[in-house]
């Protein structure tokens, strides 16, 4: 600070920064990317460890015996599901009651803003069934949740079977200190949303549901189970929730610890752990795992039924059984023991999970990158914006009127508002007018117009405002959802840095379009498919892209995901400002 | 060891001899003690098979003593009445004292109404004599003394969780004084009840746990249950129907529910041994009556329901608005124990229907986030055609700041205006909110009471050691006169089973019910206590260095100021000026 209070040195520093502005920016950008890529390198990351003492030191013995019976129950469930053509409510109620649970149902209905073509649904009506195992001598103040979705078709019957099997086994134990809620939800996330809203008596998304009759107090943790085959090769842990929120790292640690103890193969992002971190392939493996997590987190959508719990400050994760025809097989009894162990440890919790990290990335299940390590990567990108802003500020001779930039700001935000509202408003009209599908109609109305604005003010003022705006926007985004902030920074920061009215117009316009949020999403779709080892052709990719956009819009209206409004109302107008600068006359 | 055993058996022998002697002498003693106040002890166990397959056992021990603790000269000779409690009554001028310790929540919808309701945790309510001048001081002392007697954390009762309900807790004994200045009510929803509370409770019994029904009270079984509640009630009662003189009644009750799945492996087959891992061999020799009642009302057909050994004695009692039939075992009769000299009751039943409870209630916190929330209290009136009024009492700690203007009461979608509201706002760190209201519940309806609150940020020393567990809000209390199906017995002095005579009954057409909702666990905004040192260091550094110098830079403008030139320089400048050259 002494440096800045000396006017001579301050002047020298500023002249240095303005003179070397571009090289410093380039170096910062490279350093930011390099730092980020370094995060996946194992020696730079920390090993995971259990922070919560209540779950760490206590020994738990798993004795769940009834895997075969659970499978039989699953088959029964499947038969009844087929007969009922959906959720076999009566059968589930009867079965849960026979296992000594207090059983309740909840009806819900929801009209989607436009038909969802991926899942072929528009008017959704369903019923959730849940049974509460009342803990002996507990006053109904705390609860744990185990849920399994009732999905159409043949999938996930084993999960419901195992859920019922565990309910029966848990019911006969005396050691429970928290009520355990066994929930079978229909229509996956929509049912889960209805149940959670009913449980907490809130209504954030305008869904219709019947009020819940039984509750178990404040929910401490939840697991969602997905299991579609009798034997599996590995268990996959899914953490990414709504708006990129993650559960406490201790939940992941708990899963990992029990997989190690019981000897079940466990994966994250569907990727097994590798020990050869020092080889190139080992490093690229962990980069892929971490990039998958970053892409999923950035999408802001819940990647499993657990994703909606996180809003209510309930730590939750989804556990998926994967059957990939490897030699290593695990039967349902073992998975039951895994879950039993996890629930017994969660039952031991005295406080909510809070000891470990809430902000992290995982390059593998046994290693994590905490917020302190990944934030510098973003910081290096964000500092470019500040440097450019400083440069512009110095170049401005007279202090400009701030009001002069009001017009472009207002106009670009109005287009943002239009982008936010029009897709839903006009999709019906588009469907009537043109032979396009519903999803395409939504997307085309969304990206169909790129307004060319020509407003005549000093471009430096406008750019200064735009750069600072972008810096604040990205900074806030990265605090809440690092991945989204980082990906946006990766593409928008170069644009913000180089755009002036004096660069070659056509080439710059091309680059600007390539680096726009819409194209970033397109590339992300291809990149994500590549990472998942499911490469797609351009045609398929385009279709996927359209469905991703419509899913994003649906996520916003159904579950309150914030990515779509963020892009439409803030990021897109910001990008338009840069477009404006390019075509300044 | 052997010696010990021997001495023990001698002791037992002596005890038994003494007991037998006392049995013989009981009448003589009674006759002798007539002058200084008769006392009487009764014990009773009610077993009710529940619709869910669980089984409910309720013990009641009643000691009645014709004495006056408030007399000038001190009562010093105690026989059946525990001295520790007698001294408490006289020292603190207690008129009525009710204390309960409960572990678990009574599931009204599965189990029906309990004989003595109680909220999870500890509950204490006391009426003081109107001669007490400093009620708050006496209350504070009393809670500390009771804390010692019952080995419980009752010393945590202070002004922040004590209220003076205006209507919900009327005296249960005789007395016309109902000025609620002399009433104190407090709950500790977090109190955990275990063996250390049971032992002092058992010591208050005349026979301890040596003989009589109390033999069954073994903690390893009592705490292997779904619900456990023990209570002590002291109140003045009438001696006879003329009510010329009063006597003191001490009722010790213990309620326990055993679980079908955990304790009986899913079979609806229970025995005393299965429940308590003991059988009965004798009554308490000091007891004037010792009985076991088994509720057989729901099972009129013999083939569904089986009790062995069978008993010819049947009794009918009106309890909780319903006429119930009981099989009675009189333990004072030797014949009850049969040839094996031990009684192990066996109950087996297939299934039964339960009378749907007419009144039940639940409560939960709605909303998410750590700033605001909403407390919802639901009260169900399941009566098909009769409405009845209920008194709702809510005592909410000060750190949940109730927005009382958001209070709504709705039934059947319509606004339901309470006919009486007593609200006492909280004072931070001094007293809780108290909300009492009289609400009419329409027939066959759900009445919902909602009120929004804001979560306060506590001072950092006010957090508990486990702040992320959450903070408890005690149960709401719903007191009501529920319409009865059969005529109630209003004669309070007639000989009746103990379980049916706890709440005094004034009208024939309705009976008194108290329902407790579940306590709430609410999370407050909690700082990260795991790294206080880091936080303090970092904040201080940021404030001292960052803020200070940034503020400096922003508010001052820096300019280079030349020092005033020396004499030589000034002269040189004058010369240069004359020469027309720019100055130095």
From TrEMBL, chain A:
Pathway: Glycolipid biosynthesis; glycosylphosphatidylinositol-anchor biosynthesis. Pfam families: Gaa1 (PF04114). Its main location: endoplasmic reticulum. It is a multi-pass membrane protein. Signal peptide: none annotated. One of its GO terms (biological process) is GPI anchor biosynthetic process. This is GPI-anchor transamidase component GPAA1. The gene is gpaa1.
From TrEMBL, chain B:
One of its GO terms (cellular component) is GPI-anchor transamidase complex. It comes from the Eukaryota. GO terms for biological process: attachment of GPI anchor to protein. Pfam families: Gpi16 (PF04113). InterPro entries: PIG-T (IPR007245). The chain crosses the membrane at residues 7-29. Keywords: Membrane, Transmembrane, Transmembrane helix. This is Phosphatidylinositol glycan anchor biosynthesis, class T. It comes from Dicentrarchus labrax.
């Amino acid at each position: 600070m002494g440096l800045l209070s000396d006017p001579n040195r301050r002047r020298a520093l500023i002249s240095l920064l303005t003179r070397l502005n571009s090289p410093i920016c380039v170096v910062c950008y490279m350093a930011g990317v390099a730092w980020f890529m370094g995060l996946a390198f194992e020696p730079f990351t920390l090993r995971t460890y259990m922070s919560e003492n209540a779950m760490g030191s206590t020994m738990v013995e798993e004795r769940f015996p009834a895997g075969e019976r659970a499978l039989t129950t699953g088959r029964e469930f499947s038969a009844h599901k087929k007969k009922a053509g959906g959720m076999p409510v009566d059968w589930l109620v009867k079965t849960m009651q026979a296992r000594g649970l207090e059983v309740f149902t909840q009806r819900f209905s929801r009209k989607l803003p436009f038909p969802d073509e991926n899942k072929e649904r528009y008017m959704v009506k369903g019923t959730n069934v849940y049974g509460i195992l009342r803990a002996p001598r507990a006053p109904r103040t705390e609860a744990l949740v185990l849920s399994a979705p009732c999905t159409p078709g043949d999938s996930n019957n084993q999960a419901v079977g195992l859920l019922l099997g565990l309910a029966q086994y848990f019911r006969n134990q005396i050691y429970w200190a928290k009520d355990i809620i066994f929930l079978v939800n229909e229509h996956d996330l929509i049912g889960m949303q209805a149940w959670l809203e009913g449980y907490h008596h809130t209504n954030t998304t305008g869904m219709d549901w019947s009020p819940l009759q039984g509750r178990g107090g404040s929910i401490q943790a939840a697991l969602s189970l997905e299991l579609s085959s009798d034997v599996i090769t590995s268990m996959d842990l899914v953490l990414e929730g709504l708006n990129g929120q993650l559960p406490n790292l201790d939940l992941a640690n708990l899963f990992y610890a029990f997989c190690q103890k019981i000897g079940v193969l466990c994966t994250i992002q569907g990727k097994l752990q590798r020990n050869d971190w020092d080889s190139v392939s080992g490093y690229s493996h962990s980069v892929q795992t971490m990039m998958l997590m970053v892409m999923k987190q950035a999408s802001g959508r819940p990647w499993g039924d657990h994703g909606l719990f996180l809003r209510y400050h309930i730590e939750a994760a989804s556990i998926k059984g994967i059957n990939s025809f490897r030699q290593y097989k695990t039967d349902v009894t073992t998975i039951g023991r895994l879950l039993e162990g996890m629930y017994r440890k969660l039952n031991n919790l005295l406080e909510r999970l809070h000891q470990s990290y809430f902000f992290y990335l995982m390059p593998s299940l046994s290693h994590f990158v905490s917020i302190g390590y990944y934030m510098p990567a973003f910081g290096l990108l964000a500092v470019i914006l500040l440097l450019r802003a400083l440069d512009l500020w110095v170049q401005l001779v007279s202090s400009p009127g701030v009001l002069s930039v009001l017009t472009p700001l207002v106009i670009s935000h109005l287009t943002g508002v239009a982008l936010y509202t029009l897709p839903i408003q006009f999709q019906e009209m588009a469907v009537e007018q043109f032979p396009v599908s519903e999803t395409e109609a939504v997307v085309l109305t969304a990206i169909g117009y790129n307004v060319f604005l020509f407003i005549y003010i000093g471009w430096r003022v406008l750019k200064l405002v735009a750069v600072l705006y972008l810096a604040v926007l990205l900074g806030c985004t990265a605090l809440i959802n690092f991945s989204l902030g980082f990906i946006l920074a990766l593409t928008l920061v170069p644009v913000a840095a180089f755009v002036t009215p004096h660069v070659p117009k056509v080439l710059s316009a091309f680059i600007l379009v390539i680096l726009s949020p819409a194209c970033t999403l397109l590339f992300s779709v291809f990149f994500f498919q590549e990472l998942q080892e499911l490469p797609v052709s351009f045609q398929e990719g385009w279709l996927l892209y359209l469905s991703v956009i419509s899913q994003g819009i649906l996520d916003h209206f159904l579950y309150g995901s914030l990515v779509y409004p963020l892009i439409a109302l803030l990021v897109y107008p910001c990008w338009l400002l840069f477009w404006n600068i390019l075509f300044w006359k | 060891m052997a010696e010990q055993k021997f001495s023990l058996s001698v002791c037992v022998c002596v005890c038994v001899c003494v007991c037998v002697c006392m049995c013989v002498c009981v009448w003589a003693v009674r006759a002798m003690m007539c002058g200084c106040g008769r006392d009487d002890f009764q014990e009773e166990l009610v077993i009710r098979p529940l619709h869910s397959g669980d089984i409910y056992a309720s013990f009641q021990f009643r000691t009645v003593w014709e004495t006056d603790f408030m007399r000038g000269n001190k009562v010093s000779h105690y026989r059946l009445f525990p001295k520790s409690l007698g001294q408490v009554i006289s020292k603190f001028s207690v008129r009525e004292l009710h204390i309960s310790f409960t572990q678990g929540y009574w599931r009204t919808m599965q189990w029906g109404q309990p004989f003595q309701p109680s909220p999870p945790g500890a509950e204490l309510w006391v009426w003081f004599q109107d001669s007490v001048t400093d009620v708050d001081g006496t209350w504070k002392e009393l809670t500390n003394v009771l804390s010692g007697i019952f080995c419980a954390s009752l010393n945590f009762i202070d002004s922040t969780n004590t209220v003076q309900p205006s209507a919900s807790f009327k005296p249960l004994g005789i007395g016309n004084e109902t000025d609620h200045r002399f009433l104190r009510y407090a709950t500790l929803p977090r109190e955990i009840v275990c063996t250390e509370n049971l032992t002092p409770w058992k010591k208050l019994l005349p026979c301890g746990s040596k003989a009589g029904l109390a033999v069954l009270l073994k903690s390893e079984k009592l705490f292997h249950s779904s619900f456990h509640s023990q209570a002590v009630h002291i109140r003045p009662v009438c001696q006879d129907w003329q009510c010329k003189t009063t006597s003191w009644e001490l009722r010790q009750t213990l309620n326990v529910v055993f679980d079908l799945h955990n304790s009986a492996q899913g079979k609806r087959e229970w025995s005393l041994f299965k429940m308590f891992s003991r059988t009965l061999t004798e009554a308490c020799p000091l007891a004037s009556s010792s009985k076991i009642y088994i509720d057989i009302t729901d099972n009129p057909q013999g083939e569904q329901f089986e009790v062995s050994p069978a008993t010819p004695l049947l009794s009918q009692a009106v309890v909780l608005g319903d006429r119930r039939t009981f099989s009675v075992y009189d333990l004072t009769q030797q014949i009850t124990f049969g040839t094996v000299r031990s009684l192990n009751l066996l109950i087996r039943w297939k299934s039964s229907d339960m009378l749907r409870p007419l009144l039940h209630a639940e409560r939960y916190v709605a909303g998410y986030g750590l700033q605001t929330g909403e407390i919802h209290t639901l009260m169900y009136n399941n009566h098909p055609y009769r409405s009845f009024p209920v008194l709702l009492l809510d005592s909410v700690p000060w750190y949940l700041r109730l927005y009382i203007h958001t209070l709504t009461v709705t039934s059947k979608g319509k606004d339901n205006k309470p006919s009486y509201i007593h609200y006492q706002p909280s004072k931070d760190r001094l007293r809780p909110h108290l909300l009492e209201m009289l609400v009419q519940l329409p027939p066959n309806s759900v009445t919902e009471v909602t009120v929004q609150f804001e979560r306060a940020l506590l001072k950092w020393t006010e957090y508990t050691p486990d702040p992320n567990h959450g903070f408890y809000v005690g149960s709401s209390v719903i007191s009501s006169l529920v319409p009865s199906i059969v005529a109630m017995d209003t004669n309070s002095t007639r000989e009746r089973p103990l379980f049916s005579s706890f709440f005094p009954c004034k009208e024939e057409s309705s009976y008194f019910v108290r329902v407790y909702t579940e306590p709430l666990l609410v999370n407050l905004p909690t700082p990260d206590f795991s790294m206080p040192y880091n936080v303090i260091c970092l904040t201080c550094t940021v404030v001292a260095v960052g803020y200070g110098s940034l503020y400096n830079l922003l508010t001052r403008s820096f300019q280079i100021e030349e020092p005033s030139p020396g004499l030589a320089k000034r002269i040189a400048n004058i010369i240069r000026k004359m020469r027309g050259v720019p100055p130095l």
